Amino acid sequence: MWKDWIRPYVRPLPQWSTVAVAAPQQVVTATLRWDGNSADVTADHTVASLVPLVIATSLDAGQHPLLEYRDSATGKLLGVLRLAQMASVATEKASLTLYHVAGGEHRCLGWPLRSWNAWLQNRLMLKNRSPHHFAPEPAAVQQLMIAYLCPRPVVLVSVSAPGHQNIFPMDLIGPLERSGLFSLALRNTNVSVPVMREVRQVALSSIPATMKVAVYKLAEYHKHPLQDWNALPFPARPSREFGIPAVAASLRIQELSIVHSQEVGSHTLFLGRKVSDEKLAEGTQLHHTAGFHQAYRRRHGMQLAEV
Ligand SMILES: Cc1cc2nc3c(=O)[nH]c(=O)nc-3n(C[C@H](O)[C@H](O)[C@H](O)COP(=O)(O)O)c2cc1C
């Protein structure tokens, strides 16, 4: 149809695509390259802040490494981020490095569609921007989309303390494999940040792809706490050690003991150690990836299942 052909030239691709993927995702591999060295960081890098855009990893990869994302099946380069070392973070037993994203490009669309789509997306972002609302610059959102070439799993984070309970979705999360830490990047304005710093315990429910709609509704709890666990639209079950209500239909429930937290720009970076890990069911987990990544996979007949 001529409409399918013309559409990418008049309308931008969606920034994000929600997909059903078995965790841990293995469709895209992330590699850090610096000074003639390289290391697989598919399970060892995470977003620590959106403004500025900051990546955390257990490795010290020098001052100006490259972070490459490749299709695992074909080895094709999908995108690259240019990083600049910012700081290191020392916890009880491990240390991490924070890298500011200095630049980046993706290769999911051919030229000139790549530049044209970015222009259309950036124009829409600027048009919808509210002066009172938190929003990264369009160039930083383009770089964030590159970081999402590795599909990011969605979890529900549960918090329970005397006088405060909450459950909200997160995808700026991930293992930092070499350090044994697990990170959560939460906007400083999230209502549960002070409580999490105090009680230092959370439960993470890995969400089946089929629960997308219910999970998106819980985004409101980033702003105000949950009044009553019984008000949840799905059954809960207590996490194993802490007894924090988690999602009964989870694929997996992990408990974290938070060993470190600090503000990094717009976000508070929480670092935790796993206290328990219950694998409850097989199935695909809700993930987010970049819209241009899904467009690339569709063009090559290997698209991810969209939900
Ligand atoms: C699936 C999903 C994942 C999210 N992940 C995070 C996260 O990792 N960190 C965070 O601070 N906020 C996260 N949010 C919250 C949003 O960034 C945003 O704060 C929330 O949806 C409120 O939207 P608003 O501030 O645009 O009104 C997530 C929201 C959704 C729906």
Q: What does the overall shape look like? A: globular
* Sheet with the most strands: spatial strand order: 3-2-6-7-8-5-4
The amount of beta strand, in percent, is 35-45%
Low-confidence stretches: none
H/E order of the elements? Answer: HEEEEEEEEHHEEEEEHEHEEEEEHE
Q: Estimate the helix proportion, in percent.
A: 10-25%
Task: Please tally the β strands and state the result.
Answer: 20
CATH topology of the largest domain: Pnp Oxidase, Chain A
Bound molecules: flavin mononucleotide
| N/C terminus separation | 24 Å
Describe this structure in words.
41% of the residues are buried. Helices cover 18% and strands 43% of the residues. It folds into two domains: 2-149, Pnp Oxidase, Chain A; 152-286, Roll (Pnp Oxidase, Chain A). The chain is an alpha+beta fold. It is globular, with a radius of gyration of 19 Å. A hairpin with a 4-residue loop joins strand 4 and strand 5 (54-57). The mean pLDDT is 95. The protein has a seven-stranded antiparallel β-sheet with strand order 3-2-6-7-8-5-4. It has a seven-stranded antiparallel β-sheet with strand order 11-10-14-17-18-13-12, with helices on one face. The protein has helices at residues 2-10, 113-127, 138-147, 193-199, 212-217, 291-299, and strands spanning 16-21, 28-34, 37-40, 45-49, 54-57, 66-71, 77-90, 95-106, 152-153, 155-161, 164-170, 173-176, 181-187, 201-206, 236-238, 245-247, 252-264, 267-279, 285-290, 305-306. It binds flavin mononucleotide.
